[in-house]
Structure formats: C-alpha cells, structure tokens
C-alpha cells in the first residue's frame, strides 16, 4: 500500500498523517507498521494484480470478481 492508499483507507489526508509523525509519533508508527506488514505480505505478481484491479471502474471490478469466484467454485465442484 502506498501512503496515499493508507490515508484513504483510514479516511485522513496525507498532511494529517505527516502531522501525526511530528505530533503523535506513536500513532504514526502504528500506521506505518500496518502499511509495512500489509505491503510485505504480497508477492510482486499479487501487487501488480492489485494495482491493475484498482485501475478498473466499479462495473469492471464486479465483473472480474464474479469471474474469479465462478472459477474457484468450478474447481471446488470438480474435486
């Protein structure tokens, strides 16, 4: 996750986050630890998929999620 994405996720502005760095260092560190833990859990391919997915509009996202879910269900049925 980028700094911008973290800020959107917790519903704050980027300047607010940087103000926390000065004024509330413990809170800033919690946010940065969350960012680092979530960023490091994805492979390069997964990070690329997330980046590409975020570039889609809502209808396209819904379509591709439905397709993935259908493929997973099909695999489960074939077992």
Describe this structure in words.
The structure is a single chain. By secondary structure, this protein is an all-alpha fold. It has 2 domains: 3-40, no CATH class; 44-78. The protein is built from 5 helices and no strands.
Note the main attributes of this structure:
single chain, 79 residues, mainly alpha, 2 domains, 0% strand
Topology at a glance:
Layout: H1 3-9, H2 14-23, H3 25-40, H4 44-54, H5 58-78
Helix pairs in contact: 2-3
Short account of what is shown:
The protein has five helices and no strands. It is an all-alpha fold and 79 residues long. Helix 2 crosses helix 3 (25-40).
Helix count, DSSP H or I runs of 4 or more residues: 5
Main structural class:
mainly alpha
The domain count comes to: 2
Backbone CA Rg: 17 Å
Q: Average pLDDT value?
A: 90
Number of strands: 0
Taken from the alpha-carbon principal axes, the silhouette is: elongated
- Summarize the amount of helix as a percent range: over 70%
Low-confidence stretches at least 5 residues in length (pLDDT < 50)? none
């Amino acid at each position: 996750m980028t700094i911008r994405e973290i800020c959107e996720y917790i519903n704050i502005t980027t300047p607010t986050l940087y103000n926390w760095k000065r004024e509330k260092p413990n809170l800033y560190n919690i946010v940065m630890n969350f960012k680092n833990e979530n960023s490091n859990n994805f492979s390069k391919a997964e990070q690329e998929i997330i980046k590409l997915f975020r570039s889609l509009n809502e209808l396209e996202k819904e379509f591709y999620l439905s397709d993935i879910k259908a493929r997973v269900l099909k695999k489960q049925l074939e077992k």
